[in-house]
Amino acid sequence: MPVPYEAELREIAGRYPQARSGLLPMLHLVQSQDGMITPAGIEACAEVLGITAAEVSGVATFYTMYKRRPVGDYHVGVCTNTLCAVMGGDEIFAALKEHLEVGNDETAAKREGDRATVSLEHIECNAACDYAPVMTVNWEFMDNQTPASARQLVDDLRAGKEVSSTRGPTLCTWRQAERVLAGFDDGLTDAGPAAGPASLVGLQIARERGWSAPGLDTPGSSLAGHSTTEGAPGSSLAGHSTTEGAPGSSLAGHSTTEGAHGSSLAGHSTTEGAATGEGDD
Predict the structure, then answer these.
(1) With left for phi above 0 and alpha for psi between -120 and 50, is residue 225 left, alpha or beta?
(2) Whether residue 78 sits in one domain with residue 55
(3) Are 80 and 167 within one domain?
(4) pLDDT for the residue 167
(5) How many CB atoms are located within 10 Å of the residue 24 CB?
(6) For the domain that residue 111 is a member of, what is the CATH number?
(7) What does the pLDDT look like over 177-211, one tens digit per residue?
(8) In which domain, by residue range, is 18 found?
């Protein structure tokens, strides 16, 4: 049975030379429409791409951003990777589980008077260690959290209050965020600050001390005489475009991309990634 968003699935597939490359954003669109990965959504993606439902399911069950049960209007993630954990992430996650009366990757019950629902999961590194312990809400950063601030945050979300990311826009719902990840612009790309003081400390020190990068033709520069699209001889980037990672690195052979809104996805392709290894507590 056709889904009402089939035309948009085909629009996404048409963005790519190989239509199958559109599967990940297509799955985000399914979530934005159905609230989760549904059998109908899987079948629709398979039909549009000319692949089997099993192949679509294999992708949808690999990445933890794809949910096979409903999440809340606001999906709260608490980083429990090493640095955030020792800086208080584990304590924050435990406090929220108790406060919301849920386990990992579960949605809190909607109480009388609540205007929105909240779900909770622990997540792996968000590449925001300079703001540890960090949380996300619908993939937007909430920096330098404490158990008390985290409890207040989820209470505000449940009450329907307007909440802004510490380095991004006013928070939208999870379904709205999923539509952005499907590649449909919400006009908020430049809303809110993109970088905070902790990320700019090195730049500030360099300016105070008059430091600058050597010019391309400066004697002794490792880049002297070389195109800006190639690495210096003997370097880890030698012979490689600056849009590729160094040999042996996790980005080798992959082009870099940027996420929207200065979010936890910034700098990561939405078409790549590995399972975070999260498990139920």
Answers:
(1) left
(2) no
(3) yes
(4) 87
(5) 21
(6) 3.40.30.10
(7) 999 999 999 888 788 777 778 888 889 999 999 99
(8) 6-60
